[in-house]
Request: fold
Amino acid sequence: MPWREDPEPYKVWVSEIMLQQTQVATVTPYFERFMARFPTVFVLAAADLQAVLEIWQGLGYYSRARNLHKAAVWVVKERDGVLPRLSSEWQALPGIGPYAAGAIASISFGEVVPAVDGNVVRVFARLLGIRKDSTLPAVRRALTAEVTRCIAPRRAGDFNQAVMELGALVCKPRNPVCEGCPLQRWCEAHAKGLTATLPVRPTRKPVPHMDVAACVIRRGPRILIARRRPDQMLGGLWEFPGGKQEPGETLEQTAVREIDEEIGIHIRVRRQLGAIRHAFSHFKMTLHVFECTPVKGRARAVTVDAVKWVSIPELRTYPFPAADQKIITWLETDR
Reply:
């Protein structure tokens, strides 16, 4: 983990934001590219958001990148680039909750404060044999208090990282490696055969699915792209415009309606290029891609942030979500 070689606060901050809901193996190359492009909080604050999103492209959960950039701008403007030391100060920054604040403050500054993520909850729920729903606020507070009580005062950062790593590598959600666990002799879940059922979590609800039409609108050698508004999911990224299918309409009708509403032009659907299945954290989507021709009107940003006509080679210079990147690959091979 390159951020452990030098636990400088800025590097730890960036790494902790990237590691939210993302595995270490995925984060490492992104972290290295990010630090090469934005080596200090001053460079990050001075950068255009589009440049930040471009580096982040493919890592997902893009609100993390937007908040990271927003926080860097605030730190430079309000604190002359001096990063906070206390976890309470870190939590005042956009996109930083108790876990990330505790991790940064303990690792970089040695503050005796817990960093309780899913791995830590699992370790302590099993260690203490807690049979209540671990997502309940009262249970989470009790777990956090117990973690705080156990922190090694002079090695808070090492303690927090050790427990997180124990959960990730040994006390895993499924098939924990109990024979290699240094806490086995004290673990209530191991003693009572409860490792498969702890921690207790509520039953997952079925993941909803939606069908979405995406339009590749051609005008000569150029294609129309739109930038999502900052307040939207995937805000700031570019996409092939379109939207969710409504009840009672065909996907072709969805394409025509969405383009009229978003961009103010009328289109003719020529053919379907294919379908892309993509999963987000809280829903699944099938993206139905149509090649279209503009018939009437001038493209403008009605409900989107911006629109542009670009050539196929230019598409790679804009940050796109993962599903739209597959469409770009289709276009590149179908020219």
About this structure: The two ends are 41 Å apart (CA to CA). Residues 63-79 form the longest helix (17 residues). The mean pLDDT is 95.
